[in-house]
Structures are given as C-alpha cells and as structure tokens.
C-alpha cells in the first residue's frame, strides 16, 4: 500500500519554542510523541478488532499447553496486520521519516486547535463575508489536501530559517531533486514577499534593492575567493589525473614530493628573513684578493664566484651589524641614537639555523602523527566495497573532464580494493614458503654485499682525493667524488631490481617496502661515509682554509649532479627503455619505480638538511629541483609508463615515507649538525665563528654579556644554565615525549576496545528486538486462538439452538 509522502525537518531548538506546549523539535518530546503514536495505534487496533492475517494451515496445538515456540533470527516471520502496523512505527523502520510523521501530526493538531480558538462565529459575520461552498471543490481527495497542508507548513517553517540552515535541511531530506528545488523556490518566494512588505513599510524600494545587490555581490565575492583558494592548491588537477590513471601507489610519490616542497619552503623563510636578507643588506668588507669572474662552471661546482656570495658560510661576518651612519649636514659626528639596530651576526646565524631546524622538526612530527591518524584509522573496513560502489560518486561534478577523472579514480580504487581482497585469499604451501625464505636470504646477502662494496669504493676514492688535492685552477676535478657517488646510487638500485625479480613476492606492497629498505641502507651508509670524510678528514687537512665552504660546495655538487643523473635516468631508463620494449621486444610499457624515485627524494632532502649550516640557500636550490622534478616525472609517467600490472592499495605508503624522512634522514642530519656545532672547531679565516673554539661558544658569549648587563635580564642566563647546559631537562623532555607516545598508543587501543564493545552491544540490541517481536507475535497468536475458540463456541451454541 502506498504511503503518503512525508517531509523531514531538522531545525534546532530556539528560545521562542519554549511555551505552554512542548516543541516538536525537542528530542525527548519527539520520543514521547513516538511512544504516544504507538499507544494510539495499539488502542485503535484493539478497539476496531482488526482481522488477523490468515496463517498457513498446520498441525493444531494443544490448547492446554502454555508452550509457545519463538522464531529465531533466520526463520521467516509471518505477522498479523496489527503486528505489522506496530513494526511499521518502529524507529528502525521509519528512518528518515519518523520525525516528519510526528511533526506533521503535531502541526495538524495545533493547526486545528488554533482554528477552533481563533475562528469567529458565523452569527457575527455578514453574509458577504461568510465563506461560500462554491469556492471549495467537494471532489478533492482528503489525502491530497492533508499532504498539501503538510507541504504548506513545511514551506512556512523553511521560510523562517536562515539560508544556510534551510539548504542544509533540504539537502538532508529523502526527496528528489525536483521536489527539493520546488521547496527552495517556494520558501524563497515567501521570503521575498515578506521582505517586500517590510521594505514598503520601512525602507525605500531603492534602498532595499541596493542592500540586496550589495549582499549578493558580497556573497558572489566570497564564493569567488573560495573557488580561488581551491584553484591555488598546487597541481590539484594533475594529482587527480595521476591517481585516476595509475592508482594511489604512484600518486603517493607525487604527494610526498609536494610535502617535501612545503618543508623546504618552511625551512627557507626564516633563513631568508633573519640571515640571508640581513647580510645582503649589510655586506661585509671586500676580501683583499681579487674576486674571480663568472665562467659558468660554477653552476656545476658551486665554487668560484659563488664563494663570495651569501650562498656559503664563509661570506657571513662575525661582527655586530649596525645601521649605517649618515653624518649630519653641519659636519658633526653621528649620535649614539643613530647607531641603533645592533644585530649580532654569529648569534643570529646560530639561532636562526637552530630555530629553523626546530620548526622543521615540529612540523615533521605533526605531519607524521597526522599521517598515522589518517592511515591507521580505528575501526573495520567491512563494507568498503559497497561504499565505494554506491557512495563514491560526487553528483555536483558537471564538467566532462572532471567526471572522467572521477570515473577513473573510482575504477582504479575498486581495482586496488579487489586486488587487496584477493591477496588475502591466496594460500601458500610449506614447501613454497621454505623456497621463498631461501631465495630471500640469498638475495638479501647479495644486496648487503653490494651496499658494502659501494661503501668501500666511496671511502677509498675519498681518501684518494685527500692524498691528491685539487688546485683552484682545476675546478672540474672537484666533480670526481660526487660523480662516483651518483653513479653508485644510480647503478645499485638497478641491480637490486634484477635480484628482486627472483623473489616473486605475493604482495606488491611488500615488494615496494623491501626495495625501499635496500635502497635506504645503501644511501644512508654512503652518506655516513661522506659525513666522516667531511668532519673527520677534511677538517684536519683544511686547517688554514675555510673548510665550511668546502663542505657546502660538496653538498651543492652532490645535489646538482644527483638532479642531472635523475634526468639521465628518466631519459634512458624510461624513455629509451619504453621505445626498446615497444619496438624491439614487443612488450608493454615499463612500470613506474616507486621505491627508487622515493629514495631519490629522501636522499636529496637529507643533503639539504646536512648543508643548511654551511650553505643557507641550499633549501632554495632544493625547491627549484623539486619543481622541475614534478613536471619531468609527470610528463615521463604519462608518456613512458603504465599503471601497475598488479594494482594495490597504498593506504599506509605516505605514512611510511614521512616516517623514513623523519627518523633516518632528519635524525641523522640533526646529529651531524649538532656534532659540527658542539665539537668541531670553526675555521679561523672565514665565517661568523672564526674567533671561537666552537660554534656553540657564540651563545655562551652572549649569555656572559647579559650577566654583566644588569639584573633586568638575569632570567636569560638562568634559563641557559639550567635548561640548556644541564642535561636533566633533556632527559625530562624525552621521558615526557615517550609518555605521550605511550598514552596515545593506549588511547588507540582503548578506542578499538570501545568499538568492539559497541559492535557487540548493537548485535545484542538486534537480538533484543527479535525477542520482543517474537513475544508480540505470540501475544497476537494467543488472541487469534482465543477469538477462534470463541467463534467455535458461538457456532456450536447456535447449532444446538437449531437442533
């Protein structure tokens, strides 16, 4: 039987609703009204004596037995008409329309009540003012009239709501789009009529139109700014296209590149504001020697003309910078007030680098924790396939290109979900597991041996470079060690890839993780050898020279050559190999190497963090490199690569990337810089710390000056003595950090436990409903049997009277 259409209102309670009658929007009153409706329906059923639904004939039960068979959750239930009416009124059967039904009945009652109270008697009304029956159509359906009345009341209530809340209410109604548009237009029409009346009574029509025009203009401006903010998001459409064609695994690489771009921008801002900009505004006196001319080779070596710029550590002065004094017109000397802006460059250099690193650390830890929260959500993924199929499409998308991208995204996501589900169903025999373990052990031994050989080669070549120093005229020879390092970093991953083909992992996710681990071991070990070469060997060899500039130039050369080798790898490893595969070997396009490319990003970012103390503009070079890499890799991906043959869901990939960036990369760079600041003696010929034993001495000198300045700043030396030099606060902060991490782990475990309990409670409530339904069904069955026995007795009595 068709049910009349009902409407749902979701209006918050306002102070005007408190009156002599309870508000229908109060949640408790809604439940009370629901209970009253059930009671009224039950009483109506009992009074009318509805005929019970006929049951299928079965074996008769013994009347005297009080045993009643209850139905289980899997048994088919056959209910009577009264039971079905009660079931139809249950909240679980009226989701989306129970509030509308209650509110509609409440409005019907209150409207009738108001009509009875406010309707005047016909005796006091003239004949011309009395309503005529000719104005009414006596053939109208009462159901249609009732529905029209409910609709009018709904429009009236919507008209009294704000625009945003009205749209929210209409969006949540289980109606068609045409019906929603009609309701919106009717509510807006009533609002405009009311505003027109108010304007005719109060403001002039021109003022009202001017106000409406201003409001619409501001609203349009806000929408335009909002859409502009979405458009300013870098590479938004490109990332959607990559995710739709190649899946979340390849997309994770480009998202990680975007994250690194934000980290470098955040690191560069304080360096430009408090270090590079200040030194460029107050340049140091020119060096006695001649400044070399720019030859173009500096773009590769970083030496030559770049040495005498703000690019490197040696250019920065070790004095207090003051505002330049302009003598007065009368020829007098500068006053003491004119010598303002004292800027201690050694202290500013140390604090700026330290604060920039601290901000990066905080941002990195927050990003990692946020990524963990997004990837490892509490709860189960049951039903995610149905949600993806039925609830993923955004119906607000109208453009053909955007709809195609969204279609590709949903299709690729479904492939990844199904591949992950099929992967869980594949078993493996014991012999297959043993064979795989043996192959894994052999491949790991070969990979570790390769990493050890590369490390020995880098160490031997670095020692050779120390024994045969390069003169200043031979700048090209400075590229020897970086070239060897880049060749090893490029060739070893190809060997790892060939060895990984022997393993045949069942899971592509595991294959990527293993490749990342092997490449990470190789690159971190080589960087460790280079750090020992710079701080352990070069410092002793370059005693009379500026070794900080040499370390900065070495890191610059490594970054530039790494970028060049990435371009060569993209050209020959992807483009040429794609042409060979398609033309000669008749194969498909190669896949995008996620592990190798991600490790290249981590390696480049580690070089940036290692060199920020010796070359403050190194983050700017890294930003340029990342921007070029994005467009180069995107173009190569679209032209030379295909989607993964075995699609897989990269749900935790971004978390793994950020974690690797935090712990091996950032932590190693922090240890390297802390050792350089606290233990290594600075050069005596260049840089802001040329007269100090260590870079950290700049802070101690400043604290001594504050102690002599007076008691007004005595709290700063106290903080330095008890919070910086004392090791107890460091251990205390570490213990608090570990305690917070432990508490977060316990909170996650508690949330999982609570969700399990809630699921169990939901299951128990479902069983309770089945039990109550069975009880209700048994009550009506007893009534049916009692009514049947009464009819049989009456029929028997009538037969006896007839006889």
Automatic annotation (TrEMBL):
Residues 1-28, 46-72 are annotated as: Disordered. The chain crosses the membrane at residues 216-239, 260-282, 347-367, 437-461, 476-496, 508-535, 555-580, 653-678, 728-745. The keyword rRNA-binding does not apply. It is found in: Membrane. The keyword Zinc-finger does not apply. GO terms for biological process: intracellular zinc ion homeostasis; protein stabilization. One of its GO terms (cellular component) is Golgi apparatus. It is a multi-pass membrane protein. GO terms for molecular function: mechanosensitive monoatomic ion channel activity. Residues 546-651 form the TMC domain. Keywords: Membrane, Transmembrane, Transmembrane helix. Belongs to the TMC family. This is Transmembrane channel-like protein. It comes from Canis lupus dingo (dingo). The gene is TMC6.
């Amino acid at each position: 039987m068709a049910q009349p259409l009902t409407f749902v209102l979701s209006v918050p309670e306002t102070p005007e609703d408190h009156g002599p009658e309870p508000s229908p929007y109060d949640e408790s009153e809604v439940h009370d009204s629901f209970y009253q409706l059930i009671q009224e329906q039950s009483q109506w059923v009992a009074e009318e004596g509805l005929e019970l639904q006929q049951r299928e004939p079965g074996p008769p039960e013994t009347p005297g037995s009080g045993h009643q068979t209850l139905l289980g959750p899997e048994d088919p239930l056959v209910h009577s008409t009264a039971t079905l009416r009660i079931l139809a009124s249950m909240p679980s059967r009226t989701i989306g329309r129970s509030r509308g039904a209650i509110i509609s009945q409440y409005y019907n009652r209150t409207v009738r009540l108001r009509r009875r109270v406010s309707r005047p008697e016909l005796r006091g009304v003239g004949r011309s003012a009395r309503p005529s029956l000719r104005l009414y159509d006596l053939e109208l359906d009462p159901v249609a009239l009732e529905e029209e009345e409910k609709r009018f009341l709904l429009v009236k209530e919507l008209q009294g709501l704000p625009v945003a809340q009205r749209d929210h209410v209409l969006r949540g109604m289980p109606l068609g789009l045409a019906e929603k548009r009609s309701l919106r237009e009717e509510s807006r029409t009533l609002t405009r009529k009311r505003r027109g009346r108010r304007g005719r009574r109060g403001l002039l029509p021109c003022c009202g139109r001017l106000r409406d025009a201003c409001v619409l203009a501001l609203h349009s401006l806000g929408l335009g700014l909002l859409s502009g903010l979405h458009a300013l998001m870098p590479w938004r459409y490109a990332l959607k296209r990559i995710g739709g064609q190649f899946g979340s695994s390849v997309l994770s690489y480009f998202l990680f590149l975007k994250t690194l771009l934000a980290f470098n921008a955040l690191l560069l801002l304080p360096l430009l504001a408090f270090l590079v900009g200040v030194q460029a505004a107050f340049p140091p006196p020119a060096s006695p020697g001649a400044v070399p001319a720019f030859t173009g080779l500096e773009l590769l070596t970083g030496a030559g003309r770049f040495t005498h710029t703000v690019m490197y550590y040696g250019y920065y002065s070790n004095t207090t910078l003051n505002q330049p004094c302009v003598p007065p017109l009368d020829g007098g000397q500068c006053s003491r007030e004119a010598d303002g802006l004292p800027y201690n460059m050694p202290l500013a250099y140390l604090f700026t680098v330290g604060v920039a690193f601290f901000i990066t650390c905080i941002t990195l830890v927050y990003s990692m924790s946020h990524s963990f929260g997004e990837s490892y959500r509490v709860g189960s993924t049951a039903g995610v396939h149905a949600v993806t199929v039925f609830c993923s499409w955004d119906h607000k998308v109208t453009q053909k290109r955007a709809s195609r991208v969204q279609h590709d995204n949903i299709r690729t996501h479904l492939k990844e979900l199904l591949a992950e589900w099929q992967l869980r169903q594949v078993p493996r025999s014991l012999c297959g597991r043993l064979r795989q373990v043996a192959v894994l052990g052999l491949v790991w031994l070969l990979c570790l041996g390769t990493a050890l050989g590369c490390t020995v080669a880098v160490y031997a070549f670095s020692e050779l470079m120390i024994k045969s120093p390069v003169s200043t005229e031979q700048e090209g020879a400075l590229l020897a060690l970086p070239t060897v390092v880049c060749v090893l970093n490029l060739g070893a991953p190809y060997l790892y890839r060939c060895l990984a083909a022997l393993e045949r992992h069942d899971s592509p996710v595991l294959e990527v993780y293993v490749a990342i681990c092997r490449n990470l071991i190789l690159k971190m070990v080589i960087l460790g050898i280079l750090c020992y070469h710079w701080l352990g060997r070069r410092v002793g060899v370059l005693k009379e020279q500026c070794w900080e500039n040499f370390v900065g130039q070495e890191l610059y050369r490594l970054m530039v050559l790494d970028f060049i080798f990435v371009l060569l790898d993209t050209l020959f490893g992807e483009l040429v190999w794609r042409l060979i595969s398609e033309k000669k070997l008749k194969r498909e396009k190669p896949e995008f190497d996620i592990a190798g490319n991600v490790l290249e990003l981590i390696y480049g970012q580690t070089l940036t963090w290692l060199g920020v103390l010796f070359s403050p503009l190194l983050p700017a070079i890294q930003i340029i490199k990342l921007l070029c890499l994005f467009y180069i890799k995107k173009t190569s991906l679209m032209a030379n690569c295909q989607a993964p043959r075995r699609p897989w869901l990269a749900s935790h990939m971004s978390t793994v990337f950020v974690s690797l960036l935090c712990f091996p990369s950032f932590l190693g760079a922090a240890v390297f810089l802390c050792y350089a600041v606290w233990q290594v003696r600075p050069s005596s010929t260049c840089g802001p710390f040329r007269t100090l034993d260590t870079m950290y001495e700049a802070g101690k000198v400043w604290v001594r000056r504050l102690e002599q300045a007076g008691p007004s700043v005595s709290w700063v030396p106290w903080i330095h003595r008890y919070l910086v030099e004392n090791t107890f606060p460091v251990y205390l902060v570490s213990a608090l950090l570990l305690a917070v991490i432990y508490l977060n782990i316990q909170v996650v475990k508690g949330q999982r436990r609570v969700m399990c309990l809630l699921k169990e409670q939901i299951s128990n409530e479902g069983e309770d409903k089945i039990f109550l339904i069975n009880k209700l069904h048994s009550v009506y069955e007893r009534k049916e049997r009692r009514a049947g026995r009464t009819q049989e007795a009456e029929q028997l009595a009538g037969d006896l009277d007839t006889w």
